[in-house]
Predict the 3D structure of the following.
Amino acid sequence: MPDTPSSGYTPRPTNQGSADGSLALITMYEISKILGSTLNLERSLRDVLNILSSYLQMRRGVVTLREDNGALEVVAVTGMSMRSAREGEAPFPLEAMNEVIGTAMPLIVYDMAGDDRFAPYAAQAYTVEDDIQSLIAVPLKTTGRPFGTLSIERHRDGSSRFQFEHDVRFLTMVGNLIGQTVALERKVAADRERLFLEKARLEKALPRPDPPLKGAVLENVVGGSEAMLRVSAQVRQVAPSRATVLLRGESGTGKELIARAIHYLSPRADKPFIKVNCAALTETLLESELFGHEKGAYTGATSERKGRFEMAHGGTLFLDEIGEISPYFQAKLLRVLQEGEFERVGGNRTLSVDVRLVTATNKDLEDAVIKGDFRADLYYRINVVPIFLPALRERREDVPLLARFFLDKFNEENGRTLRFAENALLVMGQCSFPGNVRELENCVYRAATLAQQDVIQDFGLSCRHDQCLSATLWRRQGSGASKAIGGLASAPVTEVEPPPQEPTLTWEPPPAPTPMPRQAAPDTIDDGPGEASDSEERARLIAAMEKAGWVQAKAARLLGMTPRQIGYALKKHDIPLKRL
């Protein structure tokens, strides 16, 4: 029978083959181990082809799989690149592989150059000088229809085509292993996709909680940290009521900003918002500022003047630094908060006002109450709804947003187009900022003012030149101190070792030598101060040796010495040893 291409070859039993049974068994073992060792299908198939290239002496190998859209695609190759197999001048002939899938039968091509289906591919793959190249392709399947092919190309040695039978049978077994692996991988992928869809469906069906705090940040607040989101939620909840609010927090955390937000989110938004800094006025001036005065109440009071309580009637009065007022004024303020009534300075007419009070402090009011510096009844009156504002170090994720906000503000005020480099924002994000947002604003303005380029780098920040104002404050406060400076945080300060000092060269007279006591050398005997001592020592040694039968170890025990010391002493006193 002539050697012609066949697309439907049925192998029959034969004792011939291109490899013995032991080698085939080892090869199958290695292939099964590869297919079961990883979930990376393409990598596994490529490794399988590499093993087959050694076992079957093949030149090239190709694995094709049918995708979900029905198209057949090359997924693994050996002996050539994936790109050339898919998009080369003469790519691998997928039409012939579709025939293998359609018939579910192996395909043997004894001479690819003589087969129209493979001739262009063979001409591009092999030179004219190469021997005849053959191809064997088997379908990949499990229990259903085939969904891919495994093919090898190798040199044809001119033998009968029945010698291919062993290789066809072997490739069919390998193809079954590959088919099971591909089917399992696709089943796992389908189950995973189904689980994802089911999870998405259940999540959509479940009642969703309120939108995350991300969108609840107050309009006039910059930042999206969880700490500020909680504050924003508290403000939104408290603002509609008439309750007195006490804002707690370190200096520079934005207490006035939050007080304004409470006012503008309240029903009093169209009424006045009046603010007073209690720490900026003396007791007398503060009383006049809050309650007003009558004409002639004191020198310089040439006309009647309304106080801040009257000016805030129907609206909100913000008393900042409430912890700084004196005990005397605390009593007067308490009456206004309880009764809503007061008299102007120098007047006797009682006035009534409707004011929503918001106070703020950076002091420890509880400690002040215990010490008697702040009235307990006033403390309970203003501490109806406390809101604690976080320090900037507790919301570091807001530092870049705030820094860019202040830089944009600086650019608008000064007609600049500056921006921050990422390394500068990273450095600022690592700073503790004891002065909080106010300090950050000053830091940004200082860096922007001194910037010589449009991009502010990290070396343009004061802390990079040991000129950070906060660090200077904390160094002067002293290490180990816990009291805050001016309402700032008592942030820890990293101790910086001072630079090494040059040694000062001064001459001092050397101290007088101290006489050292005479010590016996190790393993020697203290000889004593004179010849009499030497003779006595010699006699004592001879007596001990005589008593010990001239055994040095025994003599040493009698004298409380070591054998080495005995030997040294015998040599020193020239005492000959006797052998008994």
The domain at 21-188 is CATH 3.30.450.40 (Beta-Lactamase). Confidence is low (pLDDT under 50) at residues 1-19, 208-215, 479-485, 491-532.
